[in-house]
Amino acid sequence: MRRACGIATTTVFLLGGCGVGAQDEPHVVDLPRQALTSPGQGTSEPVGDVAQVICLVRDENLVQQVRRTRSYPTPQAQLDSLVTGPTAEERNAGLTTVLSGVKLTARGITGAQAAVEFPDAGEGRARNDKILAYAQVVCTLTARPDVAEVRFTRDGQRLEVPRSDGTLTSAPLRSSDYADMLQPG
């Protein structure tokens, strides 16, 4: 009897102790952003099986856009999407890219690190455009499940690139290096 009473007490405690009170009706929960697995609202593109993130630019900030495709793109395909830039719908939403015309080459993924060959972007570019260019690549590729960081090379040599605060590094970069540049989509 004592054991049964102990089990009953434990069961009541566990069921009632989660901290969520009982409610008669469901209520709306506002999530911080749309799940990557749900189709976009009002999208004119066909809904695919896989969600991929492309980081575009609005008002000198990064905006993560989810595009649906039939299969998961290669790193090179994602880089090509960045260079091609926004779709018509994304352009209408004020999105752009600072990578137009830049030839980016994915050199592969080793462990969880992607290598990207980045050509000389030219000295005529504004400093913030350079930061945005690297940020677009890093934030796009690190949104992949197989990439945690990105390193840049030029002619096979490690490249020093700016973080969002303007400091230069030749170390691999993570999306956290550009987190303050991200804005909601």
UniProtKB/TrEMBL annotation:
Protein name: Sporulation and spore germination protein
Region (Disordered): 162-185
Short name of one Pfam family: Germane
InterPro entries: GerMN
Higher taxonomy: Bacteria, Bacillati, Actinomycetota, Actinomycetes, Micromonosporales
Top-level taxon of the source organism: Bacteria
Source species of the chain: Paractinoplanes brasiliensis
Secretion signal, residue range per the UniProt entry: none
Span of domain GerMN: 75-163
